[in-house]
Design brief:
The protein has 494 residues and is an all-alpha fold. Among the domains are: 87 residues, Serine Threonine Protein Phosphatase 5, Tetratricopeptide repeat; 64 residues, no CATH class. The chain has 24 helices and no strands. The longest helix has 20 residues. The termini are far apart.
Length: 494
């Protein structure tokens, strides 16, 4: 076990898997159920680290059942494995299962330690992160408010741990579009860290980055720029410079410079991040590929297509070296290259890349159904531009079937988008009855997940109104357009 743990910490996963598999075999041979559960749990972690999610899931579930038999169904021994299963399902975007396992871990921890024990903060934070992904914002907020109270009681109101929870609460408000309330929490967190006896420059820079993100979402790019420059300076002047954080800060500032149309400054920042990634991680690293992609995005925005595709091609070759020709990772680069070929009107190349992306995702042993559904939908829209109607309908129906499958993890937002796209296709084909049915479904989903005053709801109303005009139902269409105008004016005033 110690040799396996040492190999795991050194990222020598092949050796770690061998050691932990041997430990599992020994425990089974000696009928040592106590050690068997922990060995299976360790084996699951190693398998997960290698991207072997199905095998990891089986190991974690076997570990869980073994621990229930060896201890009890309410033993704290179960909590690490419950958390590991939840994290695994997060990797697979299966939020419903992740929530279930985090809830079980929370219940056991509460019974063992009481409702206000500091250890519950981790459980509540884990649960809240999944609830955010599911757009269950009231429940996420409730979990984080409880977490904040526990941490304040345990460590005091000015503890760095409190700053973390304030930041997490700020994210919930930001997710819901309440940027004013979000900034209040971010400012409180920043004040705690700035007034700490030993200030942590990385943490303060992180707070500044979060506040800048809020200003960006409000369109206040000058204030965002000022905060990001301050964050960058803190990181550059720190005693222990973290290259990854520095690259993130450079890229965040570059993004704002793009929004301010300061393209030369953005290009300079992106090139700095590339130099750091090359120096600290090497030219065959994921970090270097990501930085190349960011510079490519800038060139694409400026319509410098040949320069953009050169960056994306270089990033693609790096990802192929790192992960192989058929890895999901290379679809990141393929999607970007596809988009350029699409803009150039080179549909044959774009179609070839779109098919390759779908093929990779369909054949992947750890299928990311969200990415697969999105890629199928994107290929359908490409066919639509080419006028290939039969393929459009078939692919969009396939994407919707994936969205609606119980273990897809796609979420209702993606389903609403696909329903909307198929509705538009039917409208263009003159199939108004099927189009109407899908527009109504898409509109209902968007109202349910975003609320009645969201701009995406307004877009759905206008799409549906357009169909009604085609059906010569102008009075009904005008009512929907008026409803959309009210939503749009509310958002402008906000």
């Amino acid at each position: 076990m110690d040799a396996g743990t040492a190999a795991y910490k050194q990222s020598d996963y092949a050796s770690a898997q061998k050691y932990f598999s041997s430990a599992v075999d020994d425990s089974q041979a000696n009928a040592n159920k106590t050690h068997l559960g922990s060995s299976l749990n360790d084996l699951g972690l190693v398998l997960e680290s290698q991207g072997k999610y199905d095998e990891a899931e089986a190991a974690f579930k076997q570990a869980l059942e073994n621990k229930k038999e060896s201890f009890s169904s309410q033993s704290m021994e179960l909590v690490p494995t419950l958390n590991n299963l939840a994290k695994l399902y997060c990797q697979k975007s299966d939020w419903e299962k992740a929530e279930s396992y985090y809830q079980q871990a929370l219940v056991i921890s509460e019974k063992a330690n009481g409702p206000n024990h500091p250890s519950l903060a981790v459980c509540l934070n884990n649960l809240a992160s999944v609830l955010r992904e599911e757009h269950k914002f009231p429940e996420a907020k409730s979990a984080l408010e409880r977490c904040l109270a526990i941490v304040q009681s345990a460590y005091g109101s000015n503890s760095p741990a409190v700053a973390i929870e304030l930041n997490n609460l700020g994210k919930i408000y930001e997710d819901q579009g309440d940027t004013g309330e979000a900034n209040k929490f971010y400012n409180q967190a920043l004040n705690i860290r700035q007034n700490a006896t030993i200030s942590n420059g990385n943490e303060i820079a992180d707070d500044l980055n979060k506040m800048a993100a809020v200003y960006r979402s409000q369109g206040n790019f000058e204030q965002a720029e000022a905060l990001l420059r301050k964050a960058l300076k803190l990181l550059e002047n720190g005693k222990n410079i973290d290259s990854r954080n520095l690259i993130i800060a450079l890229n965040n500032l570059a993004m704002v410079e793009r929004e301010l149309q300061k393209y030369d400054q953005a290009e300079s920042l992106y090139k700095r991040s590339i130099d750091i990634a090359q120096k600290d991680f090497g030219t065959d690293s994921k970090e270097y590929a990501n930085c190349l992609d960011n510079l490519g995005d800038l060139y694409l925005e400026q319509q410098k297509l040949s320069q953009a595709i050169a960056q994306y091609q270089q990033a693609l070759e790096i990802r192929k070296k790192l992960f192989g020709d058929h890895s999901q990772e290379i679809t990141i680069s393929l999607n970007k290259i596809l988009e350029i070929h699409r803009e150039q009107g080179n549909y044959s190349l774009a179609e070839s890349e779109g098919k390759e992306i779908v093929d990779i995702l369909e054949k992947s042993p750890n299928k990311n159904k969200t990415a697969l559904a999105t890629s199928i939908s994107n290929l359908a829209l490409l066919y639509r531009e080419e006028g290939k109607g039969i393929e459009v309908e078939s692919l969009l129906k396939k994407s919707i079937a994936i969205d609606e499958s119980p273990d897809s993890g796609c979420g209702q937002e993606i389903l609403a988008n696909d329903l909307n796209n198929l509705a538009r296709f039917y409208r263009e084909q003159g199939n108004y009855s099927q189009s109407q049915e899908l527009y109504i479904r898409s509109l209902a989903i968007r109202k349910s997940i975003f609320g009645p005053d969201d701009l995406r709801v307004a877009a759905s109303l206008r799409n549906y109104a357009n169909l009604l005009h085609h059906m010569n139902k102008d009075n009904e269409a005008q009512k929907l357009e008026q409803e959309a105008e009210i939503i749009e004016s509310k958002n402008k005033s906000d």
